[in-house]
Design goal:
Elements (H helix, E strand, L loop, with lengths): L1 E9 L2 E7 L15 H12 L14 E8 L5 H14 L7 E9 L2 E6 L2 E3 L1 H8 L3 E4 L13 H9 L1 H26 L4 H19 L8 H12 L1 H16 L4 H18 L4 H27 L4 H21 L3 H19 L1 H47 L6 E3 L2 E8 L2 E5 L2 E3 L7 E2 H4 L2 H19 L3 E4 L1
Parallel strand pairs: 7-13
Antiparallel strand pairs: 1-2, 1-3, 3-4, 4-5, 5-6, 8-11, 9-10, 11-12
Length: 462
């Protein structure tokens, strides 16, 4: 429950601090004393958007509430603890301090001094504080709200049944999508088969699993430069081994060093170095000759490699930028081709699966229908009891539930709240016949019943 409330600089409320004891508290005052602003501040604390007209100049408006709840309020306790754990917010002794601020720059909210998003903040506050305002009965003006109200009265069991129902609906949608993909005429099947075979053959022709692009790139560079490399190698070979080439010059120098060493033994180390240079040149000549023999001029291979690169570019343009994506497309195409090759059997299998899912879906919808019919009887009784407490005695109230032809996320039920306020009058939808006062008291009755179901720690009635 809300144990303490602090309001600061909120419209005409400059500084308000109120402590609430356990049980019922009543706030009264003359017209214009700020009762509605007090409720507006509570609504802002709950997560509503506030108009910046509540501000005092550049001052920040603050509304802060201290909440506690008991372990017996198990639904609230478990849900709050789970949500706080997800947000990484400390929660000790079932004590929560919620704080909202609004300034000219915007608003922010904190839970136990941790800043959170407005969406997360609202999820928490919806479990701790509910406000029944003067216009809250407008919810009953739309018959669309009746089914959610009945399901709220049922509680967790209804949510579980609807969750199971939606799971089956997802299975049904998935199988229907598969059937839709197989809804082809014989001519369409033939055309798609031909296309898939062509795509698979086109991808297989590149032999991607065994293709080494880096090695192919090196080979291509070597092939296109073969003629120029051979010309350079021939020029070098001629410079080394031709008449008056480098090899002859080194040999002549070595022989001259021999003559010099005979005259002066001190130059023998120079002679040895010269002969070593001549030997190295001989080895270089042999290596260069071997290199020239490895150069292959092969225009046909250049064209083959070029075609491979063009094929790769085309595959990437059509099926994916990476080889993995192209191969994945190929696997999908092969799977699709396999389906089309056995399309009639696949259709029959999916139709049988769809029929089983449809039966399961009907069973889930029927179970939810029975649950709602039983709950409607209990809710009728409880509403009548509450209305009698409010001195509305001449009243008949019923919750008829009809079925539609289709099953949706909430089943196939249409729920109506029907009321007759005078004996002998026909039962008509609450949205059509109830007066403002009756609607307000009826909504109050539902709020009281809902608070008993959800164990709402704090209820505010305006």
């Amino acid at each position: 429950m809300l144990t303490e409330l602090r309001i600061q600089h909120f419209a005409l409320l400059d500084t308000v601090k109120v402590s609430f004891p356990s049980g019922e508290s009543v706030v009264t005052g003359e017209t214009g004393s700020g009762k509605s602003l007090f409720v507006d501040a509570l609504d802002f604390l709950r997560g509503a958007r506030a108009d910046k007209r509540v501000l005092h100049g550049d001052e920040t408006a603050v509304v802060e509430g201290c909440f506690t709840w008991t372990e017996e309020e198990s639904a609230t306790d478990a849900a709050l603890r789970e949500h706080f754990e997800e947000l990484g917010i400390p929660l000790e002794d079932r004590l929560l301090i919620a704080r909202r601020e609004i300034s000219p720059k915007g608003s922010r909210q904190r839970l136990n001094d941790v800043t959170v998003t407005l969406q997360s903040y609202r999820l928490v506050m919806e479990m701790l504080l509910d406000i029944h305002a003067q216009n809250a009965q407008s919810l009953l003006k739309s018959p669309r709200t009746y089914l959610p109200l009945l399901d709220s009265f049922i509680g967790a069991q209804a949510e579980k049944e609807k969750s199971d129902l939606r799971d089956v609906l997802l299975k049904q949608r998935h199988v229907q999508e598969q059937l839709d993909r197989l809804a082809l005429s014989p001519d369409e099947v033939l055309r798609e088969r031909d296309l898939l075979r062509y795509q698979i053959q086109e991808i297989d022709s590149a032999d991607l699993p065994n293709l080494d692009e880096e090695e192919l790139e090196r080979e291509y560079k070597a092939l296109v430069s073969a003629t120029e490399r051979l010309q350079l190698a021939n020029r070098l070979y001629g410079g080394i081994s031709g008449d008056r080439g480098l090899r002859d010059a080194l040999l002549s120098c070595a022989q001259t060093f021999d003559q010099l060493s005979h005259k002066d033994e001190g130059t023998s180390f120079l002679r040895d170095r010269m002969w070593q240079m001549e030997a190295d040149m001989e080895a270089l000549q042999e290596d260069l000759e071997n290199y020239r023999n490895t150069i292959v001029i092969d225009p046909q291979r250049i064209e083959e490699v070029d075609q491979i690169f063009q094929l790769l570019q085309m595959l990437r343009r059509k099926y994916g930028q990476q080889n993995e994506a192209i191969l994945a497309f190929r696997d999908q195409a092969a799977h699709r081709l396999e389906l089309l090759n056995h399309i009639e059997q696949e259709r029959k299998t999916l139709q049988e699966k769809q029929a089983a899912i449809t039966r399961q879906l009907q069973e889930k919808a029927d179970a939810l229908h029975v649950l709602r019919v039983n709950a409607a009887e209990k809710l009728e009784k409880r509403v009548k009891e509450e209305l009698l407490e409010m001195a509305i005695r001449q009243i008949a109230f019923t919750i008829p539930i009809t079925k539609t032809q289709t099953i949706g996320a909430n089943g196939q039920d249409v729920v109506d709240f029907q009321i007759s306020t005078n004996p002998g009058e026909p039962m008509l939808s609450l949205s059509d016949v109830a007066s403002g006062g009756e609607m307000s008291r009826f909504m109050l009755a539902l709020k009281i019943i809902a608070s008993e179901i959800t164990a709402m720690p704090t209820l505010v009635f305006d």
